[in-house]
Amino acid sequence: MQRFAWSATRIETHFQGTGIAIELTDSGNNWFEVFVDGEPTMVLRPMSGQHSYPLAEGLAAGEHTVAIARRTETFFGIS
Fold first, then answer.
1. Cα(36)–Cα(18) distance, rounded to whole angstroms?
2. pTM for the whole thing?
3. Which CA distances in Å does 17 have to 8, 14, 38, 56, 67?
4. How far apart are CA 20 and CA 32, in angstroms?
5. Could you tell me which residues are beta bridge partners of residue 64?
6. Cα(58)–Cα(20) distance, integer angstroms
7. pLDDT, tens digit, for every residue of 14-44?
8. 66 and 53 in contact (C-beta within 8 Å)?
9. What is the pLDDT of residues 39-76, one digit of tens each?
10. Rounded to whole angstroms, what are the CA distances from 10 to 4, 57, 58, 68, 72?
11. How many other C-beta atoms lie within 10 A of the C-beta of residue 30?
12. What is the DSSP letter of 30?
């Protein structure tokens, strides 16, 4: 399990397939920028508690990179 609290903290991974989701436990006060294959694709505003969120869907089959970067400050809670 990865945790991050500082603004601009980023988690990145490579995957094979057409989509990927993240299971995230959050305070419900944070915002995250999502990047797929190096391009910004969405802003994720998670709900309070533990939930699963799709980060990419419907991609061409193959290898991809996804990154999620925190946009909010530490006082909004650890994710």
1. 11
2. 0.84
3. 27, 10, 16, 10, 15
4. 16
5. 15
6. 10
7. 999 999 999 999 889 899 999 999 999 999 9
8. no
9. 999 999 999 999 999 999 999 999 999 999 988 755 45
10. 8, 20, 23, 6, 12
11. 21
12. -
Tokens 């994720």 found at: 44
Chain centroid, CA 64 distance in Å: 14
Overall size of the chain counted in residues: 79
Written as six digits, the tokens of 11 are 């988690």
| Tokens of residue 67, six digits | 């990154």
Q: Which amino acid is at 55?
A: L
Name the residue type at position 39.
E
Structure tokens at 16: 């094979």
